Amino acid sequence: MSRLDAAIEFHFAILTMAFSSLWQRFQRYFLEYRELGFSLDVSRMKFPDDLFEKMRPQIDHAFAAMRELEAGAIANPTENRMVGHYWLRNPALAPTPEIRSEIEETIRRIKAFAEDVHAEEITAKNGRRFEHVLHIGIGGSALGPQFVSAARGSPDDPMDIFFFDKTDSEGFDRVFDRIGEGLAQTLVIVVSKSGGTKETRNGILEAAAKFAAKGLQFARHAVAVTGIGSELDKHAKANGWLAHFPMTGWVSGRTSVMSAVGLLPMALQGFGTDAFLAGAAAMDERTRIPDAT
Description:
50% of the residues lie in helices and 13% in strands. It has 293 residues and is of the alpha/beta class. The chain has two domains: 3-46, no CATH class; 81-284, 3-Layer(aba) Sandwich (Rossmann fold). Strand 3 (74-76) and strand 4 (81-82) form a beta hairpin.
């Protein structure tokens, strides 16, 4: 055997051993929930094989803390608030009948509102159907709806969607240019839990001014998603906005996509909100099994 042949054989043996080791590690650390269509490969992450065993106390503590959280434990002691976005996709887990009823009623109202818009039971003042959505919010009040729209949106949707997600006058103008003559058929969703977010208020003012310049009554196009009794809630009711949906204190902006914040634009775009919630609930159930191996 020549030196070249020996070198080739040596390197081939090394590669074979490396591949065998990677394959074995992949088989051990590849996670798949076939019934949910979900998989995760962490085999290439550099952690020792005894990591999960060493972390068993922390893992057990995390599962216990999650059970307490979902049962309604106070997670924000400063504001004495629970954290309950898990209940949004499975209202049966809610710690009180009142919270469960609130979640279920909000979902029912969102679906009914979207159906009425699509069926032209709710229309613009000129009697024509709403074709566009302008979503005004910032941070968690916009990121979830933006993500879902980018992932699921298509030209075949019953309504398309545009966003005001920052204070940017040129950005506002670009959105208005894209909507063009469709402004008269645009439904506006304004999202702010407190109702006092300055960036969102700027978006409202810009939108209201644009509607007025086109001879349109902003209130006949506007829907609020906000905390009950907030300044925005009071303003929407006093000015006769089309509808208002609640944002609860136990849901933060960053986890609000399964509340009215995310479900309302989803329903208007024609996406399956029931399947979306059911998928999240199924994943919750699967990942609550206290087995980290």
